[in-house]
Write a structure and sequence with these properties.
seven-stranded antiparallel β-sheet; disordered C terminus
Length: 245
């Protein structure tokens, strides 16, 4: 994984119980993890969300209303996502162009969201599960791209699809936006569960960039192991690059 100078990838480790780690992966430092409130009370989530809003928008006093609205929207969204099995939620902010030291500003900013969730499976054999997932996705999304792959953590499936949203404007016109969604389905090696990464962006012209970003994340996925001091629950852990790109 390539990192910006002075920055480190954020590690995520999901703890099953005690000293047991369910899985780990690392995400690029451009991802800003959104608190989900898993395992904490409402007051603690509110404080985490206020801190997240300050980190995301900065400390300008005149931006306080924006930070409050941002925190409120993401609090409601986070609670819904957590109830649906999402264990990691992050906003990706990637400068395009410019220099890493800031001497030359970026030409533009590309944004995405990354969701990681776990789902139950009927089969604990990852090879069989991956084959079944690939077949099901190919039938449910015939216009998309589905490809079985092999990553360091085991067999997986890549799915790429696009959608189009249209809004009616007050003047009678319409506004449209396209969304690209890249999914990585990874069965657990010896469990009736799978790990699902969903990266989505409306910056569709950056598809190849985000394919490479998710490929880098996929290379860091690991299952099991012993809990380490650096592991924090729900906090900031063969070559699919060719398939993605």
């Amino acid at each position: 994984m390539s990192d910006l100078p002075g920055k480190s990838p954020a590690s995520y480790a999901a703890i099953d119980s005690g000293e047991s780690v369910a899985f780990r992966f690392q995400a690029q430092p451009e991802f800003h993890e959104v608190p989900l409130g898993i395992g904490i009370d409402e007051d603690a989530l509110d404080e985490q969300m206020r801190s997240f809003a300050r980190d995301y928008w900065g400390n300008r006093e005149d931006w306080e209303p924006l930070r409050r609205m941002f925190a409120a929207v993401h609090t409601a969204n986070a609670q819904q996502l957590a109830s649906q099995g999402v264990v990691y939620y992050a906003l990706g902010v990637f400068p395009i162009g410019g220099t890493a030291d800031g001497a030359v500003p970026p030409e533009r900013i590309s944004r995405c969201t990354l969701l990681v969730s776990t789902r139950e499976l009927d089969n604990s054999n990852p090879v069989v599960s991956a084959a079944g997932i690939a077949e099901a996705l190919a039938h449910s999304n015939p216009d998309g791209e589905v490809q079985p792959v092999r990553i360091p953590a085991g067999p997986a499936v890549i799915s790429i699809g696009a959608s189009r949203a249209v809004w009616s404007l007050p003047d009678g016109g319409e506004q449209e936006r396209f969304l690209v969604r890249i999914e990585l389905w990874v069965p657990f090696p010896a469990d009736n569960r799978l790990l699902l990464f969903c990266l989505s962006t409306s910056d569709v012209h950056d598809l190849h960039r985000y394919q490479a970003i998710l490929a880098d994340i996929a290379d860091t996925i690991s299952f099991g192991g012993v809990k380490r001091d650096s592991d924090v629950m729900a906090t900031s852990a063969h070559d699919i690059g060719a398939t993605f790109g």
